[in-house]
């Protein structure tokens, strides 16, 4: 008889066996696989002939230590890019739970557009019927009166099963069909998934341009050479950038991700590409294939704007006197805006948008002490100048930062303000540290040129001034909703430390057994 103490029969439940393809030995994936099954799905994807795709993802979006989704599903990034484009339909192929979550979040963010879904089961996945169903759905939707393009997205399970979207027709009734694989086990963040769709659309548009004349953009063509802007930004930022480029005889081109198909042609017609957000690897590849030079960093703050204008001047071979004219026209205004909105205090900063390093530069030039910047995105050639600038100021810059990295930096530094993702903000507030959510409160402000130089001071200073209020709230709610007091109780919780100890012992035993079997 076992000496182990037991209080229910849960430990006797049999483990679910993972099926194997007898011909290849690879795991067979089913509808039940999820975010937690990354390794299994990856192995299955390679066995299904998706190695080239996974290798390209690994080159474009290098992983580690943050190699699996820690926040929302990465496919949300590409889904949102498609949903924001005019006359573009989106169709998802994936597990029902994934599609439910993705459509829920899309509508939460005001998509106001239907998301198409082709459901599957184990049989349709294995027999290839799912691909037939997708093709039928695309034929049904392809109405040129309503759509310029249809984006079909394979989520984790169809990608791992090798559902071949590349075999879909390239065009039906004049409606372009763009098939992409956006698996969580190959693309670490939803920011990078935006690039998967943007890059696929640019590749399609480039092939169209090579094949013959294409439609002019609805907004008309600039009479000056343009600078295409890579990365979603506050709507006033492209205008500010355009104003700063004007003395150099240049104009701001469209922003990628685009809002309509014809903009893609204008983007590729630009003379230079500004990689404002540094993670658009697939899109950069398309610009380079079109022979366009790429300029990294962005015109943020004093040093950033001076260097960026100079870099654009070099890329476009502009007369240095005209570059100096642009710098002289805007740098004094940036300097004045920074001085008029000083920030005093220590700030830790983390996020997954790709603009974290730029925001940190602005905060430091405004007077803040920023010891730590974490970004979920990978290190990139296009953010290297920002990294160097920050490190020269003594900032610890962590690429592919995990939530644990961001939390431990915040807890060790105990800043006057933590700017971060939702869980970082929540943790900071629990500790009475004022906090701001990066995506809603920082990304939703201008960052470029003189407009950006003064935009952060008000919100950041107001948040830091709330420290006493945070302390008051912490004292008031101390002990509520944590540990044994979490949830709703009619009486005192019935504490059983003996059960806990026994359960803990069981967990430790299981961990030891797992470790031992790993060694075998
Ligand atoms: S598609 Fe997204 S939600 Fe679904 S398993 Fe993959 S990463 Fe998770």
What would your notes on this structure say?
The protein has three domains: 171 residues, 3-Layer(aba) Sandwich (Rossmann fold), CATH 3.40.50; 108 residues, Nitrogenase molybdenum iron protein domain (Rossmann fold, 3-Layer(aba) Sandwich); 137 residues, 3-Layer(aba) Sandwich (Rossmann fold). Helices cover 47% and strands 12% of the residues. The chain is built from 22 helices and 14 strands. A five-stranded mixed beta sheet has the order 2-1-3-5-4, with helices on both faces. Helix 3 packs across helix 8. The site of iron/sulfur cluster (SF4) has 13 residues, from helix 4.
Outline type? globular
Biggest sheet overview: 5 strands, mixed
The neighbouring-strand order within the major sheet is 2-1-3-5-4
Give me the Rg, rounded: 26 Å
Protein structure class: alpha/beta
Overall pLDDT score:
90
CATH second-level architecture of the largest domain: 3-Layer(aba) Sandwich
Helix content: 40-55%
> Which superfamily, in CATH terms, is the homologous superfamily of the largest domain?
Nitrogenase molybdenum iron protein domain
**E-strand count:** 14
In percent terms, what proportion of residues is strand? 5-15%
């Amino acid at each position: 008889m076992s000496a182990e103490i037991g209080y229910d029969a849960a430990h006797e439940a049999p483990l679910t066996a993972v099926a194997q393809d007898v011909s290849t030995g690879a795991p067979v994936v089913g509808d039940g696989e999820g975010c937690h099954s990354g390794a299994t799905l990856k192995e299955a994807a390679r066995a299904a002939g998706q190695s080239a795709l996974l290798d390209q993802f690994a080159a474009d979006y290098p992983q580690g230590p943050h190699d699996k989704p820690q926040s929302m599903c990465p496919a949300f990034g590409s889904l949102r890019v498609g949903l924001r484009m005019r006359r573009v339909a989106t169709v998802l192929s994936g597990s029902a739970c994934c599609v439910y979550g993705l459509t829920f979040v899309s509508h939460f963010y005001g998509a106001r557009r239907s998301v198409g879904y082709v459901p599957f089961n184990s049989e349709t996945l294995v027999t290839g019927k799912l691909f037939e169903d997708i093709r039928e759905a695309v034929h049904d939707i392809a109405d040129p009166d309503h759509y310029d393009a249809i984006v079909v997205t394979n989520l984790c399970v169809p990608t791992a099963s090798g559902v071949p979207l590349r075999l879909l027709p390239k065009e039906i009734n004049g409606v372009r069909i763009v098939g992409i694989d956006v698996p969580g086990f190959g693309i670490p963040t939803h920011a990078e998934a935006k690039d998967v769709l943007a890059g696929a659309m640019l590749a399609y548009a480039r092939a169209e341009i090579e094949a013959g004349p294409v439609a002019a953009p609805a907004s008309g063509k600039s009479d000056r050479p343009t600078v295409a802007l890579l990365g979603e930004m506050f709507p006033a930022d492209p205008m500010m950038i355009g104003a700063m480029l004007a003395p150099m005889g240049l104009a701001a081109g469209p922003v990628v991700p685009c809002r309509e198909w014809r903009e893609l042609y204008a983007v590729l017609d630009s003379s230079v590409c500004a990689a404002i957000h540094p993670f658009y690897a697939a899109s950069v590849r398309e610009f380079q294939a079109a022979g366009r030079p790429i300029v990294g960093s962005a015109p943020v703050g004093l040093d950033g704007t001076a260097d960026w204008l100079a870099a654009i001047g070099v890329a476009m071979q502009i007369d240095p006197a005209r570059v100096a004219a642009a710098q002289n026209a805007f740098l004094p205004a940036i300097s004045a805006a920074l001085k008029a909105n000083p920030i005093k205090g220590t700030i830790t900063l983390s996020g997954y948008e790709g603009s974290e390093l730029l925001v940190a530069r602005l905060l430091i030039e405004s007077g803040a002490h920023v010891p730590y910047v974490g970004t979920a995105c990978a290190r990139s050639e296009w953010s290297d100048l920002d990294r160097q600038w920050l490190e020269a100021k003594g900032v610890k810059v962590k690429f592919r930062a995990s939530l644990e990295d961001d939390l431990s930096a915040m807890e060790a530094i105990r800043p006057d303000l933590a700017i971060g993702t939702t869980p970082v903000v929540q943790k900071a507030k629990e500790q009475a540290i004022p906090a701001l959510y990066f995506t809603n409160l920082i990304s939703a402000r201008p960052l470029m040129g003189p407009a950006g130089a003064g935009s952060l001071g008000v919100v950041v200073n107001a948040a830091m001034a709330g420290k006493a209020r945070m302390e008051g709230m912490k004292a008031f709610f101390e002990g509520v909703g944590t540990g044994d007091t979490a949830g709703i109780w009619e009486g005192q919780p019935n504490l059983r430390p003996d059960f806990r100890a026994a359960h803990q012992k069981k967990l430790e035993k299981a961990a030891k057994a797992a470790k031992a079997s790993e060694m075998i």
